[in-house]
């Protein structure tokens, strides 16, 4: 087990950070080489090196491990909060049975909060766009299901977490997100849902696009108020 991997404990409800944030040559594009459910822990460490040490996460699943990398750290650059003296950018990999099962990127830099290109969403046509066409437009999913207990709204769909950053370094802290879900029926797009929000416990749904005719079907936005998708997410 790498020095930066840790098993969650119920006793530790705060994330422990090392005294020094180490910069790693880990670019966003590099993580596309990670294949969820296929890339092994050994392959991950060979590609990116040892994760950050002393990261302890609160989770009830004793078999889940985490590998945390620091992408960027500059004490001279302010983050998303006025006067923030510790902006950072992290990449988290979730490990189970020695395989990478999910990944997520966290940032406190304002420059990273505009990743989502709304024009891409508009190119997806419900009832017409195929799964292959959707993948060519959006690229491969980036592993938004980084928390093992997340509610799976569309297990056969595609999910993209464009932005996820926190205001505090503790569990249950404020966070914001931009989250796109594409659902399919028989290989054809059946729904496109975009969610954007800020909350202290669960995301507020500020925007939702289904590109569907009006119906009585309960949307992902409605479900979010009942079961927050990141209720057990560790804040970084």
UniProtKB/TrEMBL annotation:
Q: Which domain of life is it from?
A: Bacteria
Disordered: region residues? 196-236
Protein name stated in the entry: Lipoprotein SmpA/OmlA domain-containing protein
């Amino acid at each position: 087990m790498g020095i930066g991997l840790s098993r969650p404990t119920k006793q530790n409800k705060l994330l422990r950070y090392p005294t020094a944030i180490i910069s790693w040559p880990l670019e966003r594009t590099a993580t596309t080489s990670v294949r969820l459910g296929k890339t092994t822990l050994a392959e991950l460490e060979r590609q990116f090196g040892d994760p950050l040490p002393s990261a302890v996460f609160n989770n009830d699943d004793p078999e889940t491990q985490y590998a945390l990398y620091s992408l960027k750290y500059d004490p001279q650059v302010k983050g998303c909060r006025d006067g923030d003296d510790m902006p950072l950018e992290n990449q988290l990999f979730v490990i189970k049975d020695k395989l990478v099962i999910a990944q997520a990127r966290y940032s406190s830099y304002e420059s990273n909060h505009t990743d989502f290109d709304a024009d891409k969403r508009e190119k997806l046509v419900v009832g017409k766009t195929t799964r292959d066409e959707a993948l060519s437009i959006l690229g491969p999913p980036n592993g938004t299901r980084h928390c093992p207990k997340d509610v799976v709204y569309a297990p056969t769909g595609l999910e993209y977490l464009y932005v996820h950053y926190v205001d505090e370094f503790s569990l249950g802290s404020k966070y914001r997100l931009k989250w796109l879900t594409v659902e399919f029926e028989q290989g054809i797009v059946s729904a496109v849902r975009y969610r954007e929000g800020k909350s202290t416990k669960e995301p507020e749904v500020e925007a939702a696009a289904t590109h569907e005719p009006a119906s009585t079907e309960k949307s992902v936005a409605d479900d979010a108020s009942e079961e927050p998708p990141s209720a057990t997410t560790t804040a970084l």
